[in-house]
From TrEMBL:
Protein name: DUF3298 and DUF4163 domain-containing protein
Keywords, alphabetical: Signal
Species this protein is from: Treponema vincentii
Any Pfam family hit: DUF3298
InterPro entries, A to Z: DUF3298 (IPR021729), PdaC (IPR025303), PdaC/RsiV-like_sf (IPR037126)
Ranges for domain Deacetylase PdaC: 41-122
Length: 226
């Protein structure tokens, strides 16, 4: 399947209303209360894959991106006038794409910086799409585990791999933090990407370790779910 990327870059000194709308990503700018917003700048950089033969996937991804940007815009325009210049930044990028006969799978990385914050925040949005049903899938829907206790097995494997990373000093945390973030719940393993014969699980910031530890990953064989 031939794929390409859709890219949108916005840079503005406020006040401007920046609205992302429609699949074509038209951008509208209107003057809004320049005096109140004096000293605040806004930058957005959005880049994600588009699939030539999967228009329904494209529409769903576009909707996800649009909602994320609209939420950021809402926070941006509710900001009070700062005592000193501040910048707001919103970036979306994507991981490499995995594709087989049944699925298309990748991760959207959303970075947001709100003016005046100590640091930005990064979240991941999993996109795993069924070519058959034309829907986005959860981990359970994508893998259809035969094991009834698959979450317990995944929790055990996650703790094993993360503690090994701590021992190798490639990841900094402690056992209690890891255990809390890998309890056998679907929410704790919601961020994933399919790979050949395996699945990559990514943990959110603060989920299994401090901010400085980033978002650690584990790779689990699909056989674990059988």
């Amino acid at each position: 399947m031939k794929n390409f990327n859709r890219t949108l870059r916005i840079s503005a000194t406020v006040g401007f209303i920046l609205v992302l709308c429609c699949l074509a990503f038209a951008v509208y700018a209107k003057d809004k209360d320049k005096n109140k917003k004096q000293g605040i700048s806004y930058e957005a950089d959005i880049d994600y894959p588009v699939f030539g033969k999967e228009p329904l996937l494209n529409a769903q991804v576009s909707d996800v991106v649009q909602k994320a940007l609209e939420a950021f815009n809402s926070e941006f325009f509710s900001a009070e006038a700062p005592a000193y210049p501040q910048g707001f930044q919103f970036d979306i990028d994507s991981s490499s794409v995995y594709e087989d006969s049944k699925h298309i799978s990748f991760l959207l990385t959303v970075y947001q910086y709100v003016g005046g914050a100590a640091h930005g925040s990064t979240t991941l949005i999993p996109i795993t799409y069924s070519k058959q049903t034309k829907k986005l899938l959860s981990l359970e829907e994508a893998l259809q585990p035969a094991k009834k206790d698959w979450l317990a097995a995944l929790s055990t494997e996650a703790r094993k791999q993360l503690n090994a990373q701590v021992q190798k000093k490639t990841f900094s945390s402690d056992e209690d933090w890891i255990n809390r973030g890998t309890e056998p719940t679907k929410e704790n393993f919601a961020v994933f990407k399919l790979e050949k014969n395996s699945v990559r699980i990514v943990f959110s910031q603060y989920q299994v370790g401090p901010y400085a530890s980033g978002m650690p990953e584990i790779v689990v064989p699909r056989s674990l779910f059988k």
